[in-house]
Amino acid sequence: xxxxxxxxxxxxxxxxxxxxxxxxxxxxxxxxxxxxxxxxxxxxxxxxxxxxxxxxxxxxxxxxxxxxxxxxxxxxxxxxxxxxxxxxxxxxxxxxxxxxxxxxxxxxxxxxxxxxxxxxxxxxxxxxxxxxxxxxxxxxxxxxxxxxxxxxxxxxxxxxxxxxxxxxxxxxxxxxxxxxxxxxxxxxxxxxxxxxxxxxxxxxxxxxxxxxxxxxxxxxxxxxxxxxxxxxxxxxxxxxxxxxxxxxxxxxxxxxxxxxxxxxxxxxxxxxxxxxxxxxxxxxxxxxxxxxxxxxxxxxx
Length: 301
Known about the structure:
- This protein is globular.
- Helix 3 (71-83) links the parallel strand 3 (63-67) and strand 4.
- The N and C termini lie far apart (44 Å).
- Helices cover 38% and strands 17% of the residues.
- It is α/β, with parallel strands linked by helices.
């Protein structure tokens, strides 16, 4: 088996204790920490880099450069090591130290950007560097690269359909680049147009849900389709934190903050649905990337 084959085909797990709060509605989640570098971003990073190699845009001597809040950068770093390319990641300075440490362990160079400008600032800085020396850099540009969402159209959406035996009724997840939401939703709606695509949004522009954009107040990804979501569910940061703690303590799933937001949104959605509904969401990464975050030790649940 090639190491790249360790990306995709992740398990779909039923959240039985959390689903028990609902009236016959089942919440299920894709365990994306099972991917090679430990997050859902492996899927898009693999697709974008392989497309770059196939097109000739990524060739020996070039350096992979892009912006990330952490997970895509880690995926680039690990895949760059496998494929033989150096990697530079532009990262907001307030990104967690675990993600910075992982990037350093992979041999990636990290350029820290203004934390007040969040992921938008990192994107603009990476864009400027890539465009200033295109012969040196390969810029996948994850926010505007169709290979991103197509990775989920060809992978995640197909897997969910098959793993639920075609019984999925709702797909719900947060959006960073919006690649997971866009590709998965488009594929599922091709299988069954009645499947609802539900987008998770932070309740405020100022939030602590890593990797998730508040679309109304930020630069929108180029392939973000405003007509695709059938509805939105808002989640505040404190509720996302609380659910992240619940997932390890009740379901045995040690995941990150965006995963907690997704499951909280799925639970809120599930309360409005009829019995027999099957809601699928995404556990984006593992909790080891957030060990230094203080919310783990709060006791206000």
